[in-house]
């Protein structure tokens, strides 16, 4: 009997590039300490399973004119959660592959078990567990009081066997928990290795396209918060969403990082309860519930996340530094953005805080990436430095340029309406975001320069 030869190669977990020997830095993506050893079979008899070949449901490829392609409306499956539907762009799309990641204990398995049990009442659903026993899953379903009578559950880690069973069952949706423990029989490397994770995800994606089945894969995350495994894992799937734990451990933030069928950076808020995940339909009220009145350095702003507006509280603390190198600490906000605003405040506002420790925090664990927070950040810094609190009914938003100009932001009218709905009747915003239909009872302070904003700030707090 011929023995398959096994050779050693080294692969990058970030980009998947392979090398004949180990090296500290990947020459492909320039990442450090991302290369690990792989064992692959060199036998020419090892081939891909024919059942997993092809892509997008087409086994025979041929050239066609783009105008010949028939455009059909994508049918969507309601996930039974409006917040999850929002993040997905309206629900699950038939034939799509979705990757959901998150830290241990975030609630990935709980959320998907709730989705599976709810959908199983009207659809054929297959829940595949590779990490937990069937008894553990059943105990969780009992604890959450979920309808489990019609849910099909399977304990298996072989992709080949899962596909064979699915061909007999013909489910509408398959949940794989998790992709890191799955393996292909054709590969000799162990489950969880770079090659196994990459090929297993690719095989499941191809199966979803060919059979018009929705496949949801659970992914582990590394210590820096990214999906464990090769970077190509996120390229082959259709949607990638992350479930994060907020500073208040009761709440979970679901955010889309990639979505071929909807908007990216869409946000969904859940609360973890004794009965599982519950939707938070008004997240702005949640983030503002514990706001203390008349607090120096606290300012309210309005973000635009995907297709919804979101009110958040930004806190700043400016204190005299006891060190020759002042601290600059930012939580939930890009620290480089903080340094830019400090320099602009010095240059164009004539306010010096170079000898002060600066701490900035976005309440509720929300991570802010858009620039509309700039003006709010500057006012929070000045409020803390001067020990003057701002009115509790004031909301601020606007982008600040390096020249001290205040630039307009998108969806200005929608932001103002959201703030006014929550009782904020004073708004400071860019002059270029002039409101045509201002709500009755709303006072708007238009500014176009940092100097103008600071002078009007003095009028407000005096």
Automatic annotation (TrEMBL):
Family matches, as SMART domains: AAA
Region entry Lon-protease-like, spans: 357-462
Residues annotated as binding ATP: 102-109
Gene Ontology molecular-function annotations: ATP binding; ATP-dependent DNA damage sensor activity; damaged DNA binding; hydrolase activity; zinc ion binding
Keywords of this entry: ATP-binding, DNA damage, DNA repair, DNA-binding, Hydrolase, Metal-binding, Nucleotide-binding, Stress response, Zinc, Zinc-finger
Record-level GO cellular component terms: cytosol
CDD domains the UniProt entry points to: RadA_SMS_N (cd01121)
UniProt cross-references to Gene3D superfamilies, sorted A to Z: 3.30.230.10, P-loop containing nucleotide triphosphate hydrolases
Sequence ranges assigned to domain RecA family profile in this UniProt record: 73-221
Span(s) of short sequence motif RadA KNRFG motif: 258-262
Record Pfam families: AAA_25 (PF13481), ChlI (PF13541), Zn_ribbon_LapB (PF18073)
An example Gene Ontology biological process: recombinational repair
PANTHER family: DNA REPAIR PROTEIN RADA, DNA REPAIR PROTEIN RADA-LIKE PROTEIN
Function, as annotated: DNA-dependent ATPase involved in processing of recombination intermediates, plays a role in repairing DNA breaks. Stimulates the branch migration of RecA-mediated strand transfer reactions, allowing the 3' invading strand to extend heteroduplex DNA faster. Binds ssDNA in the presence of ADP but not other nucleotides, has ATPase activity that is stimulated by ssDNA and various branched DNA structures, but inhibited by SSB. Does not have RecA's homology-searching function. Plays a role in repairing double-strand DNA breaks, probably involving stabilizing or processing branched DNA or blocked replication forks.
Family of this protein: Belongs to the RecA family. RadA subfamily.
NCBIfam families (alphabetical): sms
Free-text note regarding domains: The middle region has homology to RecA with ATPase motifs including the RadA KNRFG motif, while the C-terminus is homologous to Lon protease.
Name the record gives this protein: DNA repair protein RadA
Name of the gene encoding the protein in the UniProt record: radA
């Amino acid at each position: 009997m011929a023995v398959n030869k096994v050779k050693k190669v080294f692969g990058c977990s970030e980009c998947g590039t392979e090398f004949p020997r180990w090296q500290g830095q990947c020459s492909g993506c320039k990442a450090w300490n991302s290369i690990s050893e792989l064992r692959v079979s060199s036998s020419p008899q090892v081939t891909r399973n024919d059942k997993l070949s092809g892509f997008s449901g087409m086994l025979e490829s041929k050239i066609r004119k783009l105008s010949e392609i028939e455009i059909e409306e994508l049918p969507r499956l309601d996930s039974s959660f409006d917040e999850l539907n929002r993040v997905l762009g309206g629900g699950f799309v038939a034939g799509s592959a979705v990757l959901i990641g998150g830290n241990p204990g975030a609630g990935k398995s709980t959320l998907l078990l709730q989705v599976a049990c709810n959908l199983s009442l009207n659809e054929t659903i297959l829940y595949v567990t590779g990490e937990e026993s069937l008894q553990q899953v059943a105990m969780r379903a009992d604890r959450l009081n979920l309808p489990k009578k019609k849910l099909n559950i399977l304990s298996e880690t072989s992709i080949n066997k899962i596909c064979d069973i699915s061909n007999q069952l013909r489910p509408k949706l398959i949940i794989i928990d998790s992709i890191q423990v799955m393996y292909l029989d054709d590969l000799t490397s162990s489950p969880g290795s770079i090659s196994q994770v990459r090929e297993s995800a690719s095989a499941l994606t191809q199966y979803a396209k060919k059979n018009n089945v929705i496949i949801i894969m659970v992914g582990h995350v590394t210590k820096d918060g990214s999906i464990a495994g090769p970077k190509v894992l996120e390229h082959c799937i259709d949607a990638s969403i992350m479930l994060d734990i907020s500073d208040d451990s009761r709440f979970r933030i679901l955010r889309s990082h990639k979505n071929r069928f909807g908007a990216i950076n869409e946000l969904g808020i859940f609360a973890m309860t004794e009965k599982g995940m519950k939707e938070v339909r008004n997240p702005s009220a949640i983030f503002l519930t514990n706001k203390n009145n008349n607090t120096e350095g606290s300012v309210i702003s309005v973000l635009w996340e995907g297709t919804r507006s979101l009110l958040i509280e930004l806190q700043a603390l400016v204190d005299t530094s006891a060190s020759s190198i002042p601290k600059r600490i930012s939580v939930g906000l890009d620290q480089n953005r903080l340094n830019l605003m400090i320099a602009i405040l010095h240059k164009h506002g004539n306010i010096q805080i170079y000898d002060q420790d600066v701490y900035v925090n976005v309440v509720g664990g929300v991570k802010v990436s858009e620039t509309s927070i700039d003006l709010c950040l500057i006012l929070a810094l000045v409020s803390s430095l001067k020990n003057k609190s701002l009115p509790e009914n004031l909301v601020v938003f606007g982008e600040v340029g390096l020249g001290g100009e205040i630039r307009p932001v998108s969806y200005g009218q929608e932001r103002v309406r959201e703030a006014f709905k929550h009782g904020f009747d004073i708004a400071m915003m860019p002059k270029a975001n002039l409101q045509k239909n201002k709500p009755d009872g709303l006072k708007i302070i238009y500014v176009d320069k940092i100097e103008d904003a600071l002078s009007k700030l003095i009028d407000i707090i005096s």
